[in-house]
Amino acid sequence: MAEMKPVDAFDLVIFGGTGDLAMRKLLPALYRRFADGQIPADSRIVGVARPHGDDESYRASVREALAQFVKGADTSTIERFLSLVSYFGLDATQELGWNEFAAELKSRPSRIRVFYLSTSPSLFVAICERLRAHELNRDGARVVIEKPIGNDLASATTINNDVATAFDEHHVFRIDHYLGKETVQNLLALRFGNVLFEPLWNAQRIDHVQITVAETVGLEKRGAYYDNAGALRDMVQNHLLQLLCMVAMEAPASLDADAVRDEKLKVLRSLKPIDANNVGITTVRGQYRSGASNAGAVPSYIEDLGKPGSTTETFVAIKAEVDNWRWAGVPFYLRTGKRLPARVSEIVIQFRSIPHSIFATSAGPIAPNRLVLRLQPDEGVKLWLMIKSPGPGGLRLQEVPLDMSFAEAFGVSQPDAYERLLLDVVRGNLTLFMRRDEVDAAWRWIDPILAAWKSGSEMPKPYTAGTWGPSASVALIERDGRTWHDSDSTDP
Ligand code: BG6
Prior knowledge:
By secondary structure, this protein is α/β, with parallel strands linked by helices. Helix content is 35%, strand content 21%.
């Protein structure tokens, strides 16, 4: 078991402290790190929301959230954790209360100070302005912002400019929680901590890459946001492109934040443009119709949304290409969707076939090697290899996985992505956070796809809830003589 190193004591302010993200993710993540002894007891966690509560009622909501979202949370640890938690009622757009708030924070002047903006981006400018006016942005204070960082390049620029009025880039932590997932960091370990893979990690040896992020959930209660976003903005612009970057980037000189982010940026800038000329053959968008999930019958997207006529996509598949020497001609097939049959996120590296077989046809077919990095639900890595089928009966070949499930191998459950990311903010480590130019480059690739969809006459293709998306998604990859990796089964 790795040694848990405590971070320095800090003050973390969560704007939007009563919101869903704070209750479901941020506070449970902080609780777990506290329970493991990584957060010093004199740290402070301040929930800020519109003025209508007090410390006691806020702590009661946090207590309830922890009981609900942290399995096995223990009552006495919860109470110790709650002694770090307080509440401040503030309206970002009104000056009332800001003097007291600033005085409270300044009472511990040399503290690491973190402001988590878990609010609508429309409030960022007001919050940042006040933080600056009250000089709370000084002395290395950090700000954390979440996606959606804009709806397109222009709106992302506005948000980033707003934040930049108070914080320089080295103090801005843009969270993409996929980068906090264990397997994603394991990709770095696997690629750059071993000599085995890197010589094969190129167009000479890799046939193609697949990145799938499948969800069983539907719209949930996020209609207002999701219907404006859709799967391309909600998942591809950030999570899937970040995963693609981790697979495709060159070896950075070190794990230094800018070294890693420079390499990711080069990948984003090498993405072959998709626009009205090729959108029809490189993208598929879908929208779920009623069907079945593992929980039984489920309504369509339109019924979930309660607004007929919406053309928002809940599924997208894309054939992307990274136009550079390493990846020339290697497609990266991306797909993500809601109401698919399983909750699965994985990256599949499909190697090329052997150049020549020495085996008789009776030995059976030789499947090319495949490396599967599973992000969820069960994190781990599988490398599919050909071996001789054991026992007598002639030489028959069989495909078997070298299988490493992290939970089984290490006997520990994987930490939630926010646990690592929040402590990285406190440590001031920007490696797993998106730099502004990365966000811009991702939008530069996404915007023309959105524009092409908008100008075309095609609507999202319907798919039945509980299936793997529209049949056009299967056709997208089969046209190239390939198939989607069967994420349902443990066998290839
Ligand atoms: C969020 C999206 O960023 O990621 C959601 O807004 C999505 O729509 C979620 O459900 C998926 O995250 P995870 O960690 O559950 O795969």
